Amino acid sequence: VQLQASGGGLVQAGGSLRLSCAASGRTANSYAMGWFRQAPGKEREWVAGISGAGSTHYADSVKGRFTISRDNAKNSVFLQMNSLKPEDTAVYYCNAKRFPYEYWGQGTQVTVSS
Distance of CA 24 to CAs 10, 20, 44, 45, 85, Å? Predict the structure, then answer.
């Protein structure tokens, strides 16, 4: 599985961005998908996840502001980010997982100015 993330950019606090992750491979739809982020000087942290069946989970820091979704017909997963805060600034990575396999995208930069 290969992952290609896009949609990052510069936005003011309170604004919105929508990240996309396109997955290649015939079995991509059977993978659980997720978004992680890594801010400068910090460890990579989990942000949101969605199962192949569509169950979603969120980190407390983004709950109520971010929405993860997937379009299995397009082998894609999305992260709608609303009410962005400066502390959301990070490189965002797409992740696909199905034991024992795990794959990462290349990351897309999100910068939120105050």
Answer: 27, 13, 24, 24, 32
Alpha-carbon gap, residue 71 to 52, rounded angstroms:
10
Residue 87 contacts by C-beta under 8 Å, 6 or more apart in sequence? Answer: 39, 61, 112
Task: Using alpha carbons, select from 101, 54, 104, 110 the residue that is nearest to residue 82.
Answer: 110
Question: What would the pLDDT profile of 30-63 be if each residue is shown by its tens digit?
Answer: 899 999 999 999 999 999 999 988 999 999 999 9
Residues in the chain: 114
Confidence of residue 18 (pLDDT cuts 50, 70, 90): very high
* Closest of 61, 56, 28 to residue 45, by C-alpha: 61
Radius of gyration of the chain, Cα coordinates, nearest whole angstrom: 13
